[in-house]
From TrEMBL:
This is UbiE/COQ5 methyltransferase. Gene3D superfamilies: Vaccinia Virus protein VP39. Belongs to the methyltransferase superfamily. LaeA methyltransferase family. InterPro entries: SAM-dependent_MTases_sf (IPR029063). It comes from the Eukaryota. Keywords: Methyltransferase, Transferase. Transmembrane segments: none annotated. One of its GO terms (biological process) is methylation. It holds the Pfam family Ubie_methyltran. The keyword Methyltransferase applies. GO terms for molecular function: methyltransferase activity.
Length: 304
C-alpha cells in the first residue's frame, strides 16, 4: 500500500506558491474552514463504517495538505471507540494513505502521524493527484477536500480517483461554492482602493464554484455514474473580529505585493473597516466562541 514520493507537479504557479507559502500556518490561513467541512464530510452515512472495528477500510486523504481529514478520522475513531463513546476498539484506526504534491504539506502531515502514534497504519507521500501510484481498486474511501480545483489536469485527477477506488467504494470531492472573505471583504476593499482596476484573481478557475460543472467533471471525466451533490455551510473564523481582520490581511497580502505602499495601507484600513460589518458570532472548530465569515462548500459524493 505504501507509496514512493514523487516529484511535485503543481496545479499552477499561483496555486503552488500559495500552498508552499502557507504550509506552516495552513490551518490559520483557511480560518479552519477546511477542517469544518472535513468534519461535515465524516458525518455522512457513507463514512460511518470507518469508525467501527475491526477495520477493513483503506482511506485515501488526497491533496491532503497538513492531513486534516486523516487527523479527523483518527480523532473520531479514538473518541467513538473509547469507553465513554460506547466502544471497545481501543482506538484502532483504518489504514490511511495521504498524498499531496507540496513537500512542506506532506512533511507536516507525516509529523502529525508520528505525533499521533499511527505510523504503523498511516503514511504520507509527495504525489500529485494526476499521478497516483496506488494500484487499481485500492481504497474503500477517498476524500479530496479542497484540492481538485488546484490540479494541473482535473480530468486526469478525477479518473485517478475512480481508478484507485474499490467497486462499491465512495469518493468525496469538495470545492468552494462561495467564499465570503473574498466576495464580501477582499473585493469591496480592493474596489475602494483601486476603483476600476481588474479584481484580484483567485488561483481557482470560476467553474469550480459551479456545482453542475463539478458534477460534470466527476461524471464525464472521472467516470463516476453515481454522483450526488450537496452544499454545506461553514465559517472562515478567528477568535475575535480584530484577529479575523489580521488573518485576512496576512492572507490577502500575497495578492497585493505589486501595489504602492499607499495602496497597501488604504487596503489594510478598508479590510479592517469591512470585517466587523461582515463577520458574525460563531463557534470555532475547537468549540470556543469566535467571529466568522460565512462560506459554502460543494460536496460531491461519488460511488463506484
Amino acid at each position: 500500500m505504501s507509496a514512493e514520493p514523487q516529484e511535485t507537479k503543481p496545479a499552477s504557479p499561483a496555486g503552488a506558491q500559495l500552498f508552499d507559502n502557507i504550509a506552516s500556518s495552513y490551518e490559520q490561513s483557511t480560518g479552519s474552514s477546511t477542517r469544518a467541512i472535513a468534519r461535515q464530510i465524516l458525518e455522512l452515512q457513507v463514512f460511518q463504517n470507518l469508525f467501527d472495528v475491526p477495520h477493513d477500510a483503506v482511506v485515501l486523504d488526497n491533496a491532503c495538505g497538513t492531513g486534516i481529514v486523516a487527523e479527523e478520522i483518527i480523532s473520531r475513531c479514538r473518541r467513538q471507540q473509547s469507553p465513554s463513546g460506547g466502544g471497545g476498539g481501543g482506538g484502532a484506526v483504518p489504514e490511511i494513505r495521504a498524498a499531496d504534491p507540496v513537500d512542506k504539506m506532506v512533511a507536516a502531515c507525516a509529523a502529525k502521524f508520528s505525533s499521533l502514534g499511527v505510523t504503523d497504519r498511516c503514511s504520507a507521500a509527495v504525489m500529485p493527484g494526476e499521478r497516483l501510484t496506488f494500484a487499481d481498486g485500492t481504497f474503500s474511501h477517498s476524500v479530496t477536500n479542497m484540492g481538485l480545483m488546484f490540479y494541473t489536469d482535473a480530468a486526469v485527477g478525477a479518473r485517478e480517483l475512480h481508478r484507485t477506488l474499490r467497486p462499491g467504494g465512495v469518493a468525496v470531492v469538495t470545492t468552494w461554492a462561495q467564499l465570503g472573505q473574498v466576495d464580501d471583504i477582499l473585493y469591496p476593499a480592493q474596489r475602494r482602493v483601486r476603483p476600476g482596476a481588474e479584481l484580484i484573481k483567485m488561483p481557482i478557475e470560476p467553474r469550480w464554484f459551479d456545482p453542475a460543472q463539478v458534477e460534470a467533471c466527476l461524471r464525464n471525466d472521472g467516470g463516476f455514474a453515481d454522483v450526488k451533490i450537496e452544499l454545506r455551510n461553514a465559517y472562515y473564523a478567528a477568535p475575535t473580529a480584530d484577529a479575523l481582520g489580521d488573518q485576512l490581511l496576512e492572507l490577502f497580502g500575497m495578492f497585493s505585493k505589486t501595489w504602492t505602499e499607499e495602496e497597501k495601507a488604504s487596503f489594510g484600513q478598508a479590510v479592517r473597516e469591512l470585517t466587523p460589518n461582515v463577520a458574525v458570532p460563531c463557534t470555532q472548530v475547537d468549540g470556543s466562541s469566535g467571529y466568522g465569515v460565512p462560506v459554502t462548500a460543494i460536496v460531491a459524493i461519488c460511488t463506484k
